[in-house]
Amino acid sequence: MQANCYLIVNRKGAVRTTKRQPALEWDEIAIEVALTLPAALFQRPQLRAAVNVGELALIDLDAEVIDNIEEAIHKTAGVEVKLEIVSASLEAQPDA
């Protein structure tokens, strides 16, 4: 994406921007700025993961362990993760 604008700065260091060429006060200067931004900058990642654990691998995770797993993923991948333990009696339902 291409975007053009003007950065207006005055002697005191106040800054403003405008899309059109500005009318300036006596103590202001205008700097024309051309921005080139990648489209990916405006897209949020749509990450999804599914982990299935077989019946023989019963795991009892307490709240502290879950918090530690969520924090470790956040530190390494930079994303917020919410883990939820679902009862074995609930069947996995296909996505709608």
Features:
96 residues; alpha+beta; 16% helix; 1 helix
Describe the protein in words.
By secondary structure, this protein is α+β, with helices and mostly antiparallel strands. The protein folds into two domains: 2-41, no CATH class; 44-77. 16% of the residues lie in helices and 23% in strands. It has a three-stranded antiparallel β-sheet with strand order 2-1-3, with no helix packed on it. The mean pLDDT is 80.
Brief overview, please?
The protein is an alpha+beta fold and 96 residues long.
Oligomer: single chain
Low-confidence stretches: none
Note the beta-strand portion: 15-25%
Structural class: alpha+beta
Tell me the radius of gyration: 26 Å
Number of domains: 2
What's the average pLDDT?
Answer: 80
- The helix content is 10-25%
N-to-C SSE string, H for helix and E for strand: EEEH
Question: Major sheet, described briefly?
Answer: 3 strands, antiparallel
Secondary-structure topology with pairs:
Elements: E1 2-10, E2 15-18, E3 28-36, H1 63-77
